[in-house]
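Model: You mentioned two targets. I'll fold them one after the other.
Researcher: Yes, keep them separate.
Model: Target one:
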Amino acid sequence: MIDLGLSKIAIIAVVGLIVLGPERLPKVARIAGTLFGRAQRYISAVKAEVTEQMNASELNELKDMAKSVGDDLKSAEQQARQSWQNTRNELNQTYQALSATNVGDLQKPVDASAYQNALAIARARRTGRASWAVKTQRTPAWFKAHNRIPKRVLSEAARMKKHRSHQANVRAVKNSFFE
């Protein structure tokens, strides 16, 4: 807008006083002020309308973008449904093909010696170095008691409270009335 400082307004007032005279200057100043106010209101209304139109265009762009994202999501959903349906059909075909084969071959009893061999291998792994980690996981209670390892860990605040309460009791005994 127009940059009017105090010095420029003073110069305009002096020129107006000289040109118009003291009788007509207040009336002209009032009229100029009202015209200036109207101009400012008109400019602010135009600004508001322009920003409203810009926001409307941005909203339209956002709506279009949301619509395109929605369309993309729908197409992705349809593709996922189609791939799911294809996989389901393939599994059904495989199941039908397997059910058509002779099931009696699959139900033969398992050889017990294979189970015994697997059990022996598992027992062999439990001895030696691999079992040492399992054995040392937990520290025995007698070891903790012998080495004075605390069973419950206190927070720093709890330790300070414990220490300070002991000190307060010692002071209370020293400063008692009966000493």
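Model: Target two:
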Amino acid sequence: MTLGEKIKKARIEAGLSQEQLSEKLGVSRSAVAKWESGKGLPDIDNLKNLSKLLNASIDYLLDDGETLDEMVMREPYNLSEYGKGLKSSKKNRVIRDKFPNAEIYSLLAYQKLTKGEKIVDNALGFFTDAPFGMPEFLNYLKNNDKRFYLVEKDGKQFFVTVTDEFIETRQLANRIDSKKFEIGNWKFKKTGKI
């Protein structure tokens, strides 16, 4: 689904005409029509305002992979309320508490390297004593507080990220049945049910 199609879908779901949306954004109706038809793009300020007005995340609007689509909810929580033990065990309790009667799969996540990071990784490995995989290691350290889960409940699938401060739940538009899959710039592998 293109950005324009997503804007149109979200606008219709919000019960707004192109004219009403254009008035709320302070742009012309033809600008909204161009965005929806793919003949133009909203600037960053209009994109932020569209996100707020249409209750659609910027990630949803800009993601071209179509895997994450229908719903995104971000809820804060207090990790210390989930007992003692390792953070990973506490986060497993958080997800079980959020989805008590669901099938929950823990996911192993790898952030894909950009072309620039791959070049830096190869240069570091060839020209210094640094081991290969440094950018991957740095990405791991940067995202170490995140745990990822695939949840199946009532015929729907949810992609859930649990950090130390919040739980983010995204309803998937397309079903994921394979053991390995990609969403955005991340690769995931199911490691088993929890």
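Researcher: Noted. Anything on target two?
Model: The first strand starts at residue 68 and ends at 76.
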